[in-house]
Design goal:
7 helices; Alpha-lytic protease prodomain-like; mainly alpha; 2 domains; elongated; 3-stranded mixed sheet; Alpha-Beta Plaits; 259 residues
Protein backbone atom coordinates (compact mmCIF):
# COMPACT_ATOMS: atom_id res chain seq x y z
CA UNK A 1 0.00 0.00 0.00
CA UNK A 2 1.21 3.55 -0.79
CA UNK A 3 1.44 6.54 1.47
CA UNK A 4 -0.77 9.62 1.20
CA UNK A 5 0.85 12.95 0.39
CA UNK A 6 -1.95 14.78 2.21
CA UNK A 7 -1.50 12.66 5.35
CA UNK A 8 2.27 13.15 5.26
CA UNK A 9 1.78 16.89 4.78
CA UNK A 10 -0.62 17.05 7.73
CA UNK A 11 1.83 15.00 9.78
CA UNK A 12 4.69 17.36 8.93
CA UNK A 13 2.48 20.28 9.90
CA UNK A 14 1.65 18.63 13.23
CA UNK A 15 5.35 18.05 13.89
CA UNK A 16 5.97 21.74 13.19
CA UNK A 17 3.17 22.59 15.65
CA UNK A 18 4.95 20.66 18.40
CA UNK A 19 8.11 22.61 17.62
CA UNK A 20 6.16 25.89 17.62
CA UNK A 21 4.42 25.14 20.92
CA UNK A 22 7.77 24.36 22.51
CA UNK A 23 9.05 27.78 21.47
CA UNK A 24 5.88 29.41 22.81
CA UNK A 25 6.52 27.78 26.18
CA UNK A 26 10.14 28.94 26.10
CA UNK A 27 9.07 32.48 25.21
CA UNK A 28 6.49 32.60 28.01
CA UNK A 29 9.09 31.35 30.49
CA UNK A 30 11.59 34.03 29.49
CA UNK A 31 8.90 36.73 29.38
CA UNK A 32 7.91 35.97 32.97
CA UNK A 33 11.36 36.91 34.28
CA UNK A 34 11.25 40.13 36.33
CA UNK A 35 12.81 43.38 35.19
CA UNK A 36 16.46 43.98 36.01
CA UNK A 37 19.07 46.70 35.54
CA UNK A 38 19.69 45.86 31.89
CA UNK A 39 16.02 45.20 31.10
CA UNK A 40 13.99 47.87 32.94
CA UNK A 41 10.89 47.06 30.87
CA UNK A 42 11.14 43.37 31.67
CA UNK A 43 11.81 40.44 29.34
CA UNK A 44 8.42 40.39 27.64
CA UNK A 45 9.82 40.93 24.15
CA UNK A 46 11.25 37.39 24.32
CA UNK A 47 7.69 36.14 23.83
CA UNK A 48 7.22 38.41 20.82
CA UNK A 49 10.50 37.28 19.26
CA UNK A 50 9.58 33.61 19.65
CA UNK A 51 6.23 34.34 18.00
CA UNK A 52 8.02 35.92 15.04
CA UNK A 53 10.35 32.93 14.76
CA UNK A 54 7.37 30.56 14.82
CA UNK A 55 5.70 32.48 12.01
CA UNK A 56 8.81 32.38 9.82
CA UNK A 57 9.33 28.65 10.44
CA UNK A 58 5.69 27.88 9.63
CA UNK A 59 5.78 29.88 6.41
CA UNK A 60 8.97 28.15 5.29
CA UNK A 61 7.53 24.72 6.18
CA UNK A 62 4.36 25.48 4.21
CA UNK A 63 6.42 26.31 1.12
CA UNK A 64 8.27 22.99 1.39
CA UNK A 65 5.03 21.02 1.84
CA UNK A 66 3.36 22.66 -1.16
CA UNK A 67 6.43 22.24 -3.36
CA UNK A 68 6.83 18.59 -2.41
CA UNK A 69 3.15 17.89 -3.17
CA UNK A 70 3.30 19.51 -6.61
CA UNK A 71 6.52 17.70 -7.42
CA UNK A 72 4.75 14.32 -7.08
CA UNK A 73 1.85 15.19 -9.40
CA UNK A 74 1.43 12.56 -12.15
CA UNK A 75 3.96 10.16 -10.66
CA UNK A 76 2.90 6.49 -10.34
CA UNK A 77 1.82 5.35 -6.91
CA UNK A 78 0.51 2.36 -5.01
CA UNK A 79 -3.16 2.29 -3.90
CA UNK A 80 -3.86 4.02 -0.60
CA UNK A 81 -4.72 2.00 2.48
CA UNK A 82 -8.06 2.85 4.05
CA UNK A 83 -6.53 3.24 7.52
CA UNK A 84 -4.78 6.48 6.47
CA UNK A 85 -8.03 8.29 7.29
CA UNK A 86 -7.80 7.60 11.03
CA UNK A 87 -4.66 9.68 11.71
CA UNK A 88 -6.39 12.62 10.03
CA UNK A 89 -9.52 12.17 12.16
CA UNK A 90 -7.39 12.02 15.31
CA UNK A 91 -5.43 15.08 14.15
CA UNK A 92 -8.64 17.05 13.56
CA UNK A 93 -9.99 16.22 17.02
CA UNK A 94 -6.72 16.96 18.82
CA UNK A 95 -6.19 20.28 17.06
CA UNK A 96 -9.75 21.41 17.81
CA UNK A 97 -9.21 20.78 21.53
CA UNK A 98 -5.78 22.44 21.50
CA UNK A 99 -7.05 25.53 19.69
CA UNK A 100 -9.85 26.02 22.26
CA UNK A 101 -7.44 25.52 25.16
CA UNK A 102 -4.83 27.95 23.80
CA UNK A 103 -7.40 30.62 22.89
CA UNK A 104 -8.78 30.52 26.44
CA UNK A 105 -5.45 30.88 28.20
CA UNK A 106 -3.90 33.13 25.54
CA UNK A 107 -6.63 35.72 26.06
CA UNK A 108 -6.49 35.28 29.82
CA UNK A 109 -2.71 35.90 29.86
CA UNK A 110 -2.77 38.52 27.07
CA UNK A 111 -0.15 36.40 25.31
CA UNK A 112 0.27 37.22 21.62
CA UNK A 113 2.41 34.15 21.04
CA UNK A 114 -0.10 31.78 22.64
CA UNK A 115 -3.02 33.33 20.75
CA UNK A 116 -1.02 33.09 17.52
CA UNK A 117 -0.34 29.44 18.26
CA UNK A 118 -4.07 28.95 18.85
CA UNK A 119 -4.84 30.46 15.45
CA UNK A 120 -2.27 28.08 14.02
CA UNK A 121 -4.12 25.11 15.52
CA UNK A 122 -7.44 26.49 14.28
CA UNK A 123 -6.02 26.69 10.76
CA UNK A 124 -4.75 23.14 11.20
CA UNK A 125 -8.30 21.87 11.63
CA UNK A 126 -9.05 23.35 8.22
CA UNK A 127 -5.99 21.70 6.70
CA UNK A 128 -6.98 18.36 8.24
CA UNK A 129 -10.42 18.73 6.66
CA UNK A 130 -8.88 19.34 3.22
CA UNK A 131 -6.63 16.34 3.70
CA UNK A 132 -9.60 14.15 4.69
CA UNK A 133 -11.54 15.16 1.58
CA UNK A 134 -8.54 14.58 -0.67
CA UNK A 135 -7.79 11.14 0.78
CA UNK A 136 -11.46 10.19 0.67
CA UNK A 137 -11.61 10.98 -3.05
CA UNK A 138 -8.45 8.99 -3.71
CA UNK A 139 -9.85 5.99 -1.84
CA UNK A 140 -13.26 6.24 -3.52
CA UNK A 141 -11.99 6.28 -7.11
CA UNK A 142 -8.18 5.84 -7.35
CA UNK A 143 -8.15 5.99 -11.15
CA UNK A 144 -10.13 9.21 -11.43
CA UNK A 145 -8.68 10.99 -8.43
CA UNK A 146 -5.07 9.82 -8.75
CA UNK A 147 -3.62 13.16 -7.64
CA UNK A 148 -6.37 14.32 -5.28
CA UNK A 149 -4.38 13.75 -2.09
CA UNK A 150 -1.37 15.45 -3.67
CA UNK A 151 -3.47 18.51 -4.38
CA UNK A 152 -4.71 18.15 -0.80
CA UNK A 153 -1.12 18.26 0.40
CA UNK A 154 -0.57 21.40 -1.68
CA UNK A 155 -3.60 23.09 -0.07
CA UNK A 156 -2.37 22.07 3.39
CA UNK A 157 0.95 23.76 2.58
CA UNK A 158 -0.85 26.94 1.52
CA UNK A 159 -2.80 26.99 4.78
CA UNK A 160 0.45 26.65 6.74
CA UNK A 161 1.94 29.55 4.76
CA UNK A 162 -1.09 31.74 5.53
CA UNK A 163 -0.84 30.89 9.24
CA UNK A 164 2.89 31.65 9.26
CA UNK A 165 2.45 35.00 7.50
CA UNK A 166 -0.35 35.94 9.91
CA UNK A 167 1.74 35.14 12.99
CA UNK A 168 4.78 36.98 11.56
CA UNK A 169 2.70 40.04 10.73
CA UNK A 170 1.08 40.27 14.18
CA UNK A 171 4.37 39.91 16.05
CA UNK A 172 6.18 42.31 13.72
CA UNK A 173 3.56 44.96 14.47
CA UNK A 174 4.23 44.51 18.18
CA UNK A 175 7.98 44.87 17.64
CA UNK A 176 7.27 48.13 15.81
CA UNK A 177 5.45 49.44 18.93
CA UNK A 178 2.06 49.57 17.26
CA UNK A 179 -0.51 51.25 19.51
CA UNK A 180 -3.25 49.12 21.10
CA UNK A 181 -6.88 49.51 19.92
CA UNK A 182 -8.73 52.75 20.73
CA UNK A 183 -10.95 50.82 23.15
CA UNK A 184 -7.95 50.08 25.38
CA UNK A 185 -6.53 53.59 25.09
CA UNK A 186 -9.88 55.03 26.19
CA UNK A 187 -9.77 52.80 29.27
CA UNK A 188 -6.43 54.39 30.25
CA UNK A 189 -7.75 57.92 29.76
CA UNK A 190 -10.91 57.19 31.75
CA UNK A 191 -8.96 55.67 34.66
CA UNK A 192 -6.67 58.72 34.80
CA UNK A 193 -9.44 61.31 34.44
CA UNK A 194 -11.39 60.22 37.53
CA UNK A 195 -8.47 60.97 39.89
CA UNK A 196 -9.14 64.22 41.81
CA UNK A 197 -6.96 67.10 40.60
CA UNK A 198 -6.60 65.88 37.01
CA UNK A 199 -7.61 68.59 34.53
CA UNK A 200 -7.11 66.41 31.45
CA UNK A 201 -4.97 63.90 29.58
CA UNK A 202 -3.02 65.53 26.76
CA UNK A 203 -1.01 62.65 25.30
CA UNK A 204 -1.23 58.93 25.88
CA UNK A 205 1.01 56.28 24.33
CA UNK A 206 1.30 52.56 24.98
CA UNK A 207 3.55 49.79 23.69
CA UNK A 208 3.44 46.10 24.33
CA UNK A 209 6.51 44.49 25.85
CA UNK A 210 5.43 40.88 25.83
CA UNK A 211 2.42 40.02 27.95
CA UNK A 212 1.43 43.55 28.99
CA UNK A 213 1.69 47.20 27.99
CA UNK A 214 3.87 50.05 29.24
CA UNK A 215 2.13 53.44 29.14
CA UNK A 216 3.46 57.00 28.74
CA UNK A 217 0.91 59.56 29.95
CA UNK A 218 0.97 63.37 29.79
CA UNK A 219 -1.24 64.67 32.58
CA UNK A 220 -2.65 68.20 32.85
CA UNK A 221 -3.00 69.73 36.33
CA UNK A 222 -3.55 73.14 37.89
CA UNK A 223 -0.50 75.28 36.93
CA UNK A 224 -0.51 76.99 40.33
CA UNK A 225 -0.14 73.85 42.47
CA UNK A 226 3.19 72.86 44.02
CA UNK A 227 5.51 70.24 42.61
CA UNK A 228 4.72 67.99 45.59
CA UNK A 229 0.98 68.24 44.94
CA UNK A 230 1.33 67.47 41.24
CA UNK A 231 3.62 64.56 42.06
CA UNK A 232 1.03 63.10 44.45
CA UNK A 233 -1.64 63.32 41.75
CA UNK A 234 0.65 61.66 39.21
CA UNK A 235 1.41 58.88 41.67
CA UNK A 236 -2.29 58.33 42.32
CA UNK A 237 -2.97 58.18 38.55
CA UNK A 238 -0.28 55.56 38.09
CA UNK A 239 -1.66 53.40 40.91
CA UNK A 240 -5.23 53.76 39.65
CA UNK A 241 -4.34 52.63 36.11
CA UNK A 242 -2.15 49.70 37.21
CA UNK A 243 -4.72 48.50 39.77
CA UNK A 244 -7.70 48.91 37.45
CA UNK A 245 -6.27 47.60 34.16
CA UNK A 246 -4.53 44.24 34.55
CA UNK A 247 -3.11 44.43 31.01
CA UNK A 248 -0.95 47.46 31.98
CA UNK A 249 2.47 46.66 33.46
CA UNK A 250 3.50 50.21 34.42
CA UNK A 251 2.80 53.87 33.71
CA UNK A 252 5.23 56.76 33.27
CA UNK A 253 3.36 59.99 34.08
CA UNK A 254 4.49 63.41 32.82
CA UNK A 255 2.87 66.37 34.59
CA UNK A 256 2.09 69.52 32.56
CA UNK A 257 0.25 72.76 33.41
CA UNK A 258 -3.33 72.90 32.15
CA UNK A 259 -4.07 75.67 29.69
Amino acid sequence: MGHSTAVVADGCESAADVFASGFVLLGLTLAAKPADENHPYGHGRAETLTGLLIGLVLAAGGVLISYSSLERLGQPRKPLASYVIWPLVASFAAKTVLASFKFHYGRRLQSAALIADAWNDAMDTLSATFALVAVGLALHDPARFLNSDRYGGFVVGLIVIVAGVRVSRDTALQLMDTMPPDRLMNQIREAASIVPGVRGVEKCFARKTGLRYHVDLHLEVDPDMTVRQSHEIAHEVRLRIVDTLDWVADVLVHVEPAR
